[in-house]
TrEMBL record, chain A:
PANTHER family: AMINO ACID ABC TRANSPORTER ATP-BINDING PROTEIN (PTHR45772:SF7), CONSERVED COMPONENT OF ABC TRANSPORTER FOR NATURAL AMINO ACIDS-RELATED (PTHR45772). GO terms for biological process: D-alanine transmembrane transport; L-alanine transport; L-isoleucine import across plasma membrane; L-valine import across plasma membrane. This is ABC transporter ATP-binding protein. Signal peptide: none annotated. It comes from Solihabitans fulvus. Residues 57-304 form the ABC transporter domain. PROSITE patterns: ABC_TRANSPORTER_2. One of its GO terms (molecular function) is L-isoleucine transmembrane transporter activity. InterPro entries: AAA+_ATPase, ABC_AA/LPS_Transport, ABC_transporter-like_ATP-bd, BCA_ABC_TP_C, P-loop_NTPase. Coiled coil: none annotated.
TrEMBL record, chain B:
The keyword Cell membrane applies. GO terms for cellular component: plasma membrane. The keyword Transmembrane applies. Keywords: Cell membrane, Membrane, Transmembrane, Transmembrane helix. It comes from Solihabitans fulvus. One of its GO terms (molecular function) is branched-chain amino acid transmembrane transporter activity. The lineage of its organism: Bacteria, Bacillati, Actinomycetota, Actinomycetes, Pseudonocardiales. PANTHER family: HIGH-AFFINITY BRANCHED-CHAIN AMINO ACID TRANSPORT PROTEIN BRAE, HIGH-AFFINITY BRANCHED-CHAIN AMINO ACID TRANSPORT SYSTEM PERMEASE. This is Branched-chain amino acid ABC transporter permease. It is a multi-pass membrane protein.
UniProtKB/TrEMBL annotation, chain C:
GO terms for biological process: D-alanine transmembrane transport; L-alanine transport; L-isoleucine import across plasma membrane. This is Branched-chain amino acid ABC transporter permease. The lineage of its organism: Bacteria, Bacillati, Actinomycetota, Actinomycetes, Pseudonocardiales. One of its GO terms (molecular function) is L-leucine transmembrane transporter activity. One of its GO terms (cellular component) is plasma membrane. InterPro entries: ABC_transp_permease, BCAA_transport_permease. Keywords: Amino-acid transport, Cell inner membrane, Cell membrane, Membrane, Transmembrane, Transmembrane helix, Transport. It is a multi-pass membrane protein. The chain crosses the membrane at residues 37-57, 64-82, 94-120, 132-152, 172-199, 228-248, 268-292, 304-325. Its main location: membrane. It holds the Pfam family BPD_transp_2. Belongs to the binding-protein-dependent transport system permease family. LivHM subfamily. The keyword Membrane applies. It is found in: Cell membrane.
Length: 310, 382, 334
């Protein structure tokens, strides 16, 4: 699928009018001011005084079994507010399964996931989103028939309160929310750098744009925790570099990020801490430098039997 | 994977496309300047009785136009369910029947129930069918979509069977002289009668316009976005915070309500309701109307309704074979043009027009594919 | 013991029910329900197999069935039987004619199923169409087949051709068991056992199960997916054809262009009741449905059996959507 999508026409030169064209013409100073404006819109109600470093989400003894298969085996780790945590491990180690448990796709067989001291328990998936966990997908899953902007606004709808009858009667709240959602959606698209294709159908976007749109859509739900599932898959080195910049920028805006990634250079380069899974078990946790030198991790990746690994 | 399924071919500039783009580049005022005369023309149609368009002498033209308007109303309602939310409702005739029976039970002298004025029965029919929508939707909408198809199919048939079996619904003998809106002509006869289709047509067109506006409001709101998101990828919609079950129920219930409204309208015009008029084949005709014109697109489904309702009346030679023809059309269309004749995408933002203009200096692209077009990586088996 | 529910004080009846009738008819209902239910089960297998492999409700399966009914009817016709009194036939002759009709009906239904798959569904699979498109095509195909019969034979039912009259063979608890009921139940069970053995014991059957589990992996493992799908439709069609003959023997006026519709919905109900995708479930679901709707008929009156069946479908979906025995064949996918 990627070939076709990338082959789709490249972003056109911005037309005469519009913000996108304007930004292209801005001076550095104007640009900085504009970016501050965008950042404000992207992360509107951030509580700046929140202590960075206390626990945001904790996996407590999470075990997940499918029949006889143990996908996660009493996994324990926590994600601290304001950090970028990497979740790595060989194929089939249970990384995406971890995501699926956090976002309510699977219920743990035992153990629990706790977000800000509240166990997720039996909450529905959309309720978990409203509590503040958002994710992207390894195999891109956008709403293909919607425009780029509409995709983002669907994410923003997670915070909206207009009822069906309110929408039917176009009550003032509906108008306000629509306006705000569009504003914020546009800001988010600028933030991730795809505003020039806001009006195109998501399925017609180039591959790299689709990956960024996934991030923008997840951010639109105003998450406390943003989970990125292999966001760099299929990227070339230059694009990966840009993505690292974007992830840092997202954290800089006050979001906490959980990152699944295969590319070690990217993971080592951008994360604060790393958790390593193998066969559904946590085998290591630490700052990137520690992980790099951890014999168990090396064994897991290289497949060398090591007594210390288990 | 599936590299051979191209995501979408570069948009071909067809005549339809350029017309649509032109229309979109007009301002609201300009659009109204075109729309208002068009609406006036539509209201005047049965009076003008244009030579090529007329169905006479085979079929009374105003009544034919009423049928078209009634089908348009049905298609708009079913489109909410099938076109927007992507739920296959094959029992739409059941809701239509419930609406018709509500009208009959509360207005016909054959019924023992308390009599109500016809115009009060219209909202009552809407409420009752919504109730049926909840009853039917709540157990099935939690399940995979195909269960809904078969349960609704069964429901359509069950309403007919109940009409047969429940003594109070009078089976084949039915209800005579169903009520109609008030008003008398100069000669003292009722304004709304069975022989003159014009007042009924005007009533139907008015209802169509009202329903169009309301459904449009929903479409360009979080509700419409939720529906399309569910249609596109229900699991992802749920993860993005859309309470999918709730919005599916709403789509189903709103569709049911419009079906009930059109049923009550039909009962009034025809003046007689019995169990012979609501077979499931009619349900498939309704579906054909939605799919033929372009599901998801309100103009498209009205075009579809026109084709389904008008052509067999205009060309009476094909009337006998209409079911066969429309059934074949469904198969062929799904194969070659699943988005229908007019497959425009719907707008989902209340403030979208201004936003795109401000952001890009141009309106959004409205290309002609839609919900039913194959997407890479999505197969029936998946 | 006759009860009447009247509400809204309008003096007209809404629902009558009579529990005493069920007590009197209990064993008759049960036995008749078993024979009716085995017909449902045979048709249900077609839904279940196709659903298991393609995750598609093959709406056209009801027309596959009714084509078989017409196949059997015109076999009788071709053998020189005409509507009217039941002829006196020797046992050998009778078996020969019925076997012949069985083969024709099975072939007609099997061929119809395969044609539908080739003409309607396969091109869509090639294009990777979304599920909604498959469903709409399925309903379109069902419609077209029905209309072909309508245009050919008109809207009236064919007049009855009977080869044998039901005769009481023995009684259980005072309820008589007829030769017809015994033939239908036994023949259905034999056919289902054959189908079950085929799916579970043969190489081709393994292919069917493999595709039901995981089409992509099965293809990688060298299973010819297209052939498996065709085979699935064929088996479903053949069983529906057998059901068609039994149906015609039970209700000789059953050959009508619309006759497949209700039976199709009921067979699907049976499949869901037992657990769609589950072969044994189809049998169990069919039998239960047959019995329950007979009870319903006794309690509420003749016309209510179809309504009871439908209400059962909704109730099952409400409380146990995976059916009594659970979904199987492949496991349910999200």
């Amino acid at each position: 699928m990627s070939e076709d999508v990338t082959a789709a026409d490249q972003p056109e030169v911005p037309a005469e009018g519009g913000i996108v064209a304007e930004v292209a013409r801005m001076s550095p100073a104007e640009l900085a001011a504009h970016e501050a404006e965008v950042a404000e819109a992207v992360a509107p109600d951030r509580e700046i005084e929140v202590a960075v470093g206390d626990t945001l989400l904790a996996m407590q003894d999470v075990t997940l079994q499918f029949g006889g298969l143990v996908a996660l085996d009493s996994v324990n780790f926590e994600i601290r507010r304001g950090e970028i945590l990497g979740l790595i491990g060989p194929n089939g180690a249970g990384k995406t399964t971890c995501f699926n448990v956090m976002t309510g796709v699977y219920r743990p067989t035992s153990g629990q996931v706790v977000l800000e001291d509240r166990p997720l328990g039996k909450r529905k998936r959309h309720e978990i989103t409203q509590l503040g966990i958002a994710r992207t997908f390894q195999n891109i899953r956008l709403f293909g028939e919607m425009t780029t902007l509409e995709n983002v606004v669907v994410g923003a709808d997670a915070r909206h309160k207009t009822s069906v009858l309110g929408a039917l009667a176009r009550v003032p709240r509906h108008h306000r929310e629509e306006r705000e959602a569009v504003e914020r959606g546009m800001a988010l698209l600028e933030f991730v750098g795809i505003a020039d294709r806001a009006a195109d159908k998501a399925k017609n976007l180039p591959y790299g744009y689709q990956r960024r749109l996934e991030i923008a859509r997840a951010l639109a739900t105003e998450p406390k925790l943003l989970c990125l599932d292999e966001p760099a898959a299929g990227f070339n080195p230059a694009e990966k570099e840009e993505l690292m910049g974007l992830i840092r920028k997202i954290r800089g805006d006050g979001y906490t990020v959980l990152l699944i990634e295969h590319d070690m250079r990217l993971v080592m380069g951008v994360t604060d801490r790393i958790v390593v899974l193998e066969f559904g078990k946590k085998i290591a946790e630490g700052v990137p430098a520690e992980i790099r030198d951890n014999p168990a991790v090396i064994a897991a990746y290289l497949g060398v039997p090591d007594d210390g690994a288990a | 994977m599936n590299a051979h399924h191209t995501a979408s071919p570069p948009a071909k500039v067809s005549g339809m496309q350029t017309m649509r783009d032109k229309w979109n580049s007009l301002s609201r005022v300009q659009q109204w300047a075109v729309l208002i005369p068009l609406v006036v023309l539509i209201y005047l149609l049965p009076v003008l009785n244009p030579p090529l368009l007329t169905t006479e002498p085979n079929y009374n033209f105003p009544i034919a136009m009423f049928d078209v308007a009634r089908y348009a109303l049905i298609a708009i309602g079913l489109n909410v369910v099938v076109g927007q939310a992507g739920l296959l409702d094959l029992g739409y005739v059941g809701f239509f029947a419930v609406g018709a029976y509500v009208a009959a039970l509360f207005t016909s002298p054959d019924s023992m129930l308390h009599k109500l004025p016809y115009l009060a029965v219209l909202p009552l029919a809407v409420v009752v069918t919504m109730f049926f929508g909840v009853i039917l939707g709540a157990p099935t909408l939690r399940l995979r979509g195909d269960y809904l198809a078969i349960v609704t199919l069964g429901f359509g048939e069950m309403v007919r069977l109940l009409a047969d079996q429940v003594p109070a619904l009078r089976g084949n003998s039915g209800f005579q002289t169903v009520g109609h809106p008030p008003g008398t002509r100069a000669d003292g006869t009722a304004l709304f009668n069975q022989t003159d289709g014009k007042p009924w047509y005007w009533l139907a067109v008015t209802l169509v316009i009202g329903v169009l506006l309301l459904v449009g409001n929903l479409e360009r709101s979080r509700v419409g976005r939720a529906w399309v998101a569910i249609r596109e990828d229900e699991a992802v919609a749920e993860i993005m915070g859309v309470p999918t079950f709730k919005y599916k129920i709403w789509a189903f219930v709103i569709g049911a309500a419009i079906g009930g409204l059109s049923g009550a309208l039909y009962a009034g015009q025809i003046g007689f309701v019995n169990n012979q008029k609501f077979d499931v084949t009619t349900s498939v005709l309704f579906l054909a109307a939605v799919v033929l014109g372009g599901s998801g697109n309100k103009v498209g489904v009205m075009l579809g309704a026109f084709v389904i309702a008008y052509l067999p009346l205009r060309f009476s030679g094909i009337a006998e074979y209409k079911y066969l023809i429309f059934g074949l059309a469904l198969i062929v269309l799904m194969l070659f043009r699943p988005q229908g004749l007019l497959g425009a995408r719907q707008r989902l933002l209340a403030k979208g027009r201004e936003a795109y203009q401000r952001l890009l200096g141009r309106p959004e692209q409205i290309s002609s594919d839609s919900s039913l077009v194959a997407e890479p990586g999505k197969e029936a088996g998946a | 013991m006759n009860h009447v529910v009247t509400f809204l004080a309008d003096g007209s009846d809404w629902i009558n029910f009579d529990v005493g009738a069920l007590r009197d008819q209990f064993w008759n209902d049960t036995i008749e329900g078993l024979s009716q239910g085995s017909i449902y089960a045979l048709v249900a297998l077609g839904y279940t197999l196709v659903y298991g492999v393609l995750r598609l409700i093959n709406f056209a399966h009801s027309e596959v069935f009714i084509f078989g009914v017409f196949g059997a009817y015109f076999t009788f016709f071709g053998l020189g039987f005409r509507p009217g009194p039941t002829p006196e036939l020797g046992a050998g002759e009778l078996i020969l004619y019925l076997a012949l009709a069985l083969i024709v009906a099975m072939l007609v239904s099997g061929a119809t199923a395969v044609v539908v798959e080739r003409v309607a569904y396969r091109p869509l699979r090639r294009r990777g169409a979304p599920p909604l498109v498959f469903l709409i095509t399925a309903i379109g195909a069902s419609f077209v087949l029905q209309q072909i019969l309508f245009i050919w034979r008109g809207g009236n039912q064919e007049r009855a051709i009977r080869l044998m009259r039901p005769q009481e063979v023995f009684t259980i608890f005072g309820a008589s068991v007829t030769n017809l009921q015994i033939i239908i139940v036994l023949a259905s069970i034999v056919l289902m056992l054959i189908a079950n053995t085929f799916i579970n014991r043969t190489r081709l059957g393994r292919g069917v199960r493999a595709v039901a589990q995981d089409p992509d992996t099965a293809t990688l493992m060298g299973v010819n997916k297209e052939r498996v799908i065709m085979l699935t439709f064929l088996i479903g069609g053949l069983l529906a054809g057998a059901a068609a003959l039994f149906y015609l023997m039970k209700a000789p006026t059953g050959a009508s262009y619309q006759g497949g519709f209700l039976l199709g919905i009921k067979a699907f109900t049976a499949a869901v009741l037992g657990g769609i995708g589950n072969l044994r479930g189809a049998l169990l679901g069919g039998l239960i449905l047959g019995i329950v709707e007979n009870y319903g008929q006794s309690v509420f009156g003749g016309g209510w059996r179809d309504i009871v069946a439908f209400v059962l479908l909704v109730v099952v979906l409400m409380f146990r959507p995976t059916g009594i025995l659970g979904e199987s064949l492949g496991k349910a996918r999200v």
